[in-house]
Amino acid sequence: MIDKKHLFNKTIIRSYDIRGIYNKTLFDLDAKIIGNLFGLKVGKNQNVNIAYDGRLSSESLKNKLVEGLLEVGVNVTEIGLSPTPLLYFSCIKNKAAGGVMITGSHNPKHHNGFKFVFNNMPFYGDDLIKLSEKAKGFSFKRNRGKKFKQCFKDEYINRIFKGINLKNKHRIAWDAGNGVAGELMSKIAKKINNQNFLLFENVDGNFPNHHPDPSNPKNLKDCINLIIQEKLDLGIAFDGDGDRIGVIDDKGRVLSGDQLLLLFSYEILKKKKGAKIIGDVKCSQILFDEIKKKFGIPIMSQTGHSHVKVNIKKNKADLAGEMSGHIFFNLNYYGFDDALYSSVKLVELLDKQSKKLSEIVDQFPKAFNTPEIRLECNDLKKFEIINKVTFNQKRKNQEVIDIDGIRVSSKNGWWLLRASNTQAELVLRCEANSFENLKKELSLVKEAIFEVDSELSDKILVENYI
Ligand SMILES: [Zn+2]
């Protein structure tokens, strides 16, 4: 028997994944221990697929993780340098019991981490915390799992294009931000037609051009400029591991995640009345109202790709999306977040229309929004504030949704206050049907926070956000 004892840095075990700064809070040895523990969870002779992104530390972490898995007798299939959706796809294809993606997603370049799949569902939250706690003392009999290599890229691309018949030419800017989606992005662009403009398709863990995070408009500048200069039809950008998409219309305007989801919702609801569509708690009320108007069933979910995937399964939903750009197709696909598949579905949708993307988006109902307002607040206090605010609002008989933070609706708008999943921050956002009402919503949330913490409420300067 081998006995091991290990302590992880406390900050790296998160609710959705394991994440840290390489050689500062996250080390190669952690990867090996994680391999041991996840391997013991999955079980001897079971198969685990492994993929990694293009970060400088990813290969090293991957090698150690594989060592840890083999040591406890798990068989490993390495699928190589790949975006996260390809890992998910591979697990379905070779019926792997588990999968681990080594990725820092859209985080700064020295960060890295692990995303887990167990029986084709996200492995996260309490399960992940319990697993990591076992590191304090565990033992196993040394085994030797088998190691395989398998490439799923061609099968994946073929699956993405299954049933897609494009009739028109589309002039598109594609931006992988030197993240790991670049290679497959180029293959997809080529398959669509030869009128593409590729940006930063080569994998480079130094991210020399811009950070691979399309949710920050600053990172889309090159793509926007290219669209305007070359008069392109649209722009598509990917995050560092290819599970989040950013979309820019022909006028160089960035679509928000809920606008993109609405676009796909209309399309699905043309074919399937009663389709169930999930949006996260940050999405506009317009999304939920429009789905209902088109005879769909809108469902609101907590924010976070793992929560959304669980909700898709639970509700047998057809489509889901988040403000952050994770889009999940379940109708005729697998229900995981796949920005590469979403990009092709978007081109297919536009192929059937005579209108430009900007014209379609301009027809969407309008709302007035604040940006996401971030208030620094320590991790313990942030949940306490949410609880107190929720208690007060319920007592006042407000219309409250409290699945993730608190979202309070009135007939003219809503406000949302939630604890950030990743930082010591409270995040708030308001939406209303007029500029005046937006101001009112912001004052309402300010007042709600004032009731429990006047100092924090002082940090909200209404005039700064609208
Ligand atoms: Zn990602």
Biggest sheet details:
7 strands, mixed
Classification by helices and strands: alpha/beta
Number of helices, counting only DSSP H or I runs of 4 residues or more: 16
Bound molecules: zinc ion
Total strand count, please? 23
Mean pLDDT: 95
Q: In whole angstroms, how far apart are the ends?
A: 63 Å
Radius of gyration: 22 Å
- Give the overall shape, derived from the CA principal axes: globular
Uncertain runs are none
Strand composition percent: 15-25%
How are the SSEs ordered, and which strands pair?
Elements: E1 2-4, E2 18-21, H1 28-42, E3 47-52, H2 58-71, E4 75-81, H3 84-93, E5 98-102, E6 111-118, E7 121-122, H4 125-133, E8 138-140, E9 147-149, H5 153-160, E10 172-175, H6 182-192, E11 196-199, H7 221-230, E12 234-238, E13 245-248, H8 257-271, E14 276-280, H9 285-293, E15 297-301, H10 305-315, E16 319-321, E17 327-329, H11 339-351, H12 357-362, E18 368-369, E19 373-376, H13 379-395, E20 399-401, E21 406-410, E22 413-419, E23 425-432, H14 435-450, H15 454-458, H16 462-465
Bound molecules: zinc ion (ZN).
Residues 105-106, 239, 241, 243-244 line the site of zinc ion (ZN).
Description of the structure:
The protein has 466 residues and is an alpha/beta fold. The chain has helices spanning 28-42, 58-71, 84-93, 125-133, 153-160, 182-192, 221-230, 257-271, 285-293, 305-315, 339-351, 357-362, 379-395, 435-450, 454-458, 462-465; strands at residues 2-4, 18-21, 47-52, 75-81, 98-102, 111-118, 121-122, 138-140, 147-149, 172-175, 196-199, 234-238, 245-248, 276-280, 297-301, 319-321, 327-329, 368-369, 373-376, 399-401, 406-410, 413-419, 425-432. It contains 16 helices and 23 strands. Helix 6 (182-192) links the parallel strand 10 (172-175) and strand 11. Helix 1 packs across helix 2. The chain is globular, with a radius of gyration of 22 Å. Zinc ion binds next to loops.
